[in-house]
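REQUEST ID: PR-0412
SUBMITTED BY: lab tech R.K.
PRIORITY: routine
TASK: structure prediction, single protein chain
INPUT:
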Amino acid sequence: MNIKQIILAGACMFSLSVTAQNAADDMGPTMGWSSWNTYGVNINEQLIRRQTNAMVAKGLKAVGYQYINIDDGYFGGRDPETGQLLIHPTRFPNGLKTLVDFIHSKGLRAGIYSDAGRNTCGSKFNNDTIGRGVGMYEHDQQDADLFFKELNFDFIKVDFCGGSWYHNDDHLVLDERERYTAIAQAIKNTGRTDVRMNACRWAYPGPWISDVAFSWRTTGDIYDGWTSVKGIIQENLYLSAYCHDGRYNDMDMLEVGRSMTEIEDQTHFGLWCIMSSPLLIGCDMTNIRSTALNLLKNKELIALNQDILHLQAYVCQRESGCYVLVKDIEQLNSKKRAFAVYNPTDEQQTVNVNFAQMDLGGTIQLRNVFTQRNAGTAEQVFEVTVPAHGTAIYTAEADTRLERTLYEAETGFNGTYQELSNNQAFPSGSYDEVDYASGGCKVGWLGNNKDNNLEWRNVYSQRGGRYRLTIGFISGENRTALLTVNGTRIKSLTNLNSGGWNKVGTREIEIQLNAGANTIALSNSSAWMPDMDYIRLELLEADGIGNASASALQQPQCIYDLQGRKTPHPQQGIYIVNNKKVRL
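STATUS: complete
OUTPUT:
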């Protein structure tokens, strides 16, 4: 390897190391089927067997669907002497072990359901009284051993009706963090390391959840209707920062193939894919119409969902009531990205997609992911017409990846963000759509706690260097925020007053960024901060190469094979990075 190759490899080492780490994890969002949406508690052994056979016969297994999840309704109470969980005697007369074995025999994985409290949701809201007392509360290890050591399940959805007083008859009040942490520990104690737990608390519970669950519900229950799907999308538009390290925001099970229109089904499935939500089919797979089946089997949409980077698309543009969402695919900070143009309005809209706002330059090669066909090329702007309730999704490969300069506040990570408690009594930020913010959204109620901050965790600099940082903020009074870069205190910014709570002010400061990913954070541990709109970066001087503009710096191709040949699209194997061997 020559000196030029070593320098280029070193410049991209962060991007490659993250890609390699995620490749080793290799766990995309859960794909499968769940009994709840269509059948509720009215399930039985033969129904589950038929759905298992259908997943294979319809070709769904072949494109990545793996899990057959038995939801609420299989319970038969508990043994009053031993506390052992019992299985419903008529719905599942042969128990669950032979059923799990059958699912496994088809090359699929088996999922089960429980509750973090004493009672399940079905025991109260579906009058399935035999489900009372069958939740995991006070039986964590006993039930975990049964599910994962004796019955050999691979997945569990853990509801919270039994833990929230207004959802259970005995008005039991439980702490979400304590319960889900205890259940995760009980699963770990079984010795199984491959079990996926979904925490179903119906709202984002807090950043701690990614330490204990594989995925977590962020909204109330979905239902078969456009209003429900539209509301769930809205609640997840600004949660991209909380999907990370192979852990996912769960937008709930799929209603595709039931009663919505074909266009609404496309939006539903397409956005679940690009936003990296679990994909759990909720319809009757034995009787699914061909258009819905083909949609669910669209390999290019599934590839966006299962992409190796495990990212949720974020909003980069708003126009005509529509949203443009974008994310990296295949490799961080590369020239290839995926984007969606989402139209939640009741009328057809035309959107001029601005490629500079998704950090792509030059000629853009486009591919329509729904049709799985190339869609030609574009430069700078691409006009997309989207029907009411519709979505268009493309992959875009550019000549140049521009260094991102604008980081909206709503793409940042708030260290105490949660949706369960009053965010002023328990200081945590809020994501609020407002017309006067640059991206149409601001983050408010920051500060009064050292962790109630705002962090932009992947601020990427191609070379590193000196930058002008512009902070866009909103405040009708003098407020203060501490600026840190990569954990180092830079400056306390005082007298942040924009002149009103609906006006955006700015403050500029010079900072130094490293090559690769950086973290820029604003915080105040003892008082409220201003509301935040955005941060903007302007490269003043790049490290080692003198003055240069960010747009003039193109990302180097940084991966080389053992013979020193440039490898822009590596496969699994050994490559050279910074004169060292690295396994992808």
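NOTES: The CA atoms of residues 146 and 380 lie 58 Å apart.
REVIEWED BY: pending
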